[in-house]
Amino acid sequence: MLTLRSIVLFVLAALAEIGGAWLVWQGVREHRGWIWIGAGVIALGLYGFVATLQPDANFGRILAAYGGVFVAGSLLWGMVVDGFRPDRWDVIGALVCLVGVGLIMYAPRPA
């Protein structure tokens, strides 16, 4: 159950951070204005809060593992929202990152 909770939190964190960064990008690069930028800043702050809810208490481990989730999530976001089509190297790289997430977060460790 803790693993499922952790995975859900990683997904929520990715949505908040990637979505927040995308909103800022849209506000600045696509000239959509301060409302988009402000919404992005709020979403980025929400990401920071969601990360604290992870069951593991080790900040470094959580952020290191989240990096892999961020890589895969960013490619997925680009596909869904911007019509980006990753090539095989993007997909292989994302899969390598997700294997790293699994090892960092869910490998058995002595108590």
UniProtKB/TrEMBL annotation:
UniProt subcellular location: Cell membrane
Membrane-spanning residues: 6-25, 34-53, 59-77, 89-107
Keyword terms: Cell membrane, Membrane, Transmembrane, Transmembrane helix
Pfam short name (any one): UPF0060
Membrane topology designation: Multi-pass membrane protein
Keyword Nuclease: no
Protein name per Swiss-Prot or TrEMBL: YnfA family protein
